[in-house]
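Hi everyone,

Forwarding the result from last night's run.
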Amino acid sequence: MSESSTKPYFIRALHEWCTDNGYTPHIVVHVDENTLVPRGYISDGQITLNLGLLATNQLDLNNEFISFQARFGGKTEDIWVPVKAVSAIFARETGAGMGFEVGEGDDIGESSENVADLEAADLKAADLKVALNLTEGPTSHSANQTTQDEASKPKRPHLTIVK
């Protein structure tokens, strides 16, 4: 029997860490035909999803997939994401988190570099640009919702080092 991936365990651990510290956990997902997300919220083949307990219903952080219900534009949507498509998990408020390689053998696009921590890692902005756009601070809009105004703004990657 082959060894299981550490990725889902890291995702669950960082989700718990964010929740315990009052932060809002978000994941960055490379979208393909195996990913069930609202297509209108995809940008450059990626989507950032809020995994906060107040933003999700029936959240399941499984070893193979992440599933939950969330509201997008006032409409409840079922979300299903393969764990192998997740490229990062981070705290929205601080940017602290972890990046991952996107699963090998998938038609999900190029792999991002494996990194230990978004605070200290030298990341490629193109791989995680949605996750890195944290300079504006917390937003007040509802779970997983990006407004058209925000989507049209130029993205300026910036990490804040928190000690």
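The chain has a mean pLDDT of 75.

Cheers,
N.
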